Amino acid sequence: MEVPILKQGAFLIATFQAALSDADLNQLRMGLVQQVVKLRSRAVIVDVTAMDVMDSFASRTLREIAHMIRLRGAETVIVGIQPEVAFAMVQLGLTLEGVATALDLEEGLAYLNEKFKTTN
Amino acid sequence: MAKRNETPREIMKLNNQVAELPRSEAPSELLRELVAHLRQNRTQLREEWVVRITETRLLTAMTKEEIFAEATSVYDSYVEALETEAFEALQAYARNLSERIIPRGVETHEVVGIVLLLRDVLARSLFAKYQNDFKKLNRILDAYEPAANRIANTVAVGFVQERERVIRQQQEAIRELSTPVLQVRERLLILPIIGVIDPQRARQLTEQLLRGIRTNRAKVVVIDITGVAAMDLTVANNLVQTVEASRLLGATVIVTGLSPEIAQTLVTIGVDLGKMNTVGDLQGGIEQAERLLGYKVEKLAEPR
Description:
Order of helices and strands of chain B: HHHHHHHEEHEHEHEH
Number of domains of chain A: 1
Strand order of the largest sheet of chain A: 1-2-3-4-5
CATH architecture of chain A: 2-Layer Sandwich
Largest sheet of chain B: 5 strands, mixed
CATH topology of chain A: Transcription Regulator spoIIAA
Distance between the termini of chain B: 99 Å
Shape of chain B: elongated
Largest interface: A-B, 18 and 18 residues
Number of helices of chain B: 11
Structural class of chain B: alpha/beta
CATH class of the largest domain in chain B: Mainly Alpha
Number of helices of chain A: 4
Oligomer: heterodimer
Strand content of chain A: 15-25%
């Protein structure tokens, strides 16, 4: 299943669908980093609003994506984690440590704009 | 000649458990006969039942008129259940009745008591009627007893179910009232916690807060635990999880009002205090939250 990756100025927005297999996640990890390199993006927003479940593999993949993208000098923000999903995640100890998070796409963009305004 | 009711003895013994009886065939002639008798003598038998209820001091929370009114409808439903064997309808009636009388303070033992009294009053009247024909009395009782026991069971279960439903409802209401999530500024929520937190309340608190963060688009939450005397390890862990889960929704949590005891608990369980933002009191917490949100509060004049 292809995950749509849209370009928004200097940022990329990847919107996760509800049911992503492990293979999809692996493909996405490589695909996103390649796009960041190709388009010289400064940040990636990963929108997981449609995910109603987040298992440890998905969580680890998100962290790895963020780390790999940081190695390219770009920022990652995860947005749209649902309350129930957040609750389940912390109970399993999946805290996405070290990765920026925001409530939704709007907040994610506001966060990035603020961040890049000050470092410019 | 009337047919003997074919219910085996073993099934009659099961009557007092809540088991699904095999549906007997359409009301046998015997059942029809006894139902007719109970209807014919309705007034007298109902009166006798009400007298017994008062004698045994049941339904003391109700007036004589109320007891009589309820007795009438219960009697009719009882006889109808004997006739039609429609126990689902009876259970619905029992729940409905319970909904009315539970707020009046009627207890389970009273409801079970009056149904059993009715069963006895009707049985005695059958003894009286068929006392000269022992064989027929036996067959009549074979028809009556399983149905009567099933009725008692159904009414008792219906009553208890309704009671449990009310209790659950009240518990839910209490829990919601006790953990209000309050918006005090744009993007700023306060969650003042007072009293004892057990794991269930802690969980409910977290769920309510996360929903509140999403609804109010909060960026900062101040959780004040001044009113919490003590916290065990489980609840302390819940607090940490609440902070982490809030972060996943893009909100920063400031915890205020930690007592020395609770601070000790947190240190003992090894909470990474770098991860938890804490400030001494609620006032300090709100001021910090405002700073985080970019507010500046300036005093323009003295209070009048």
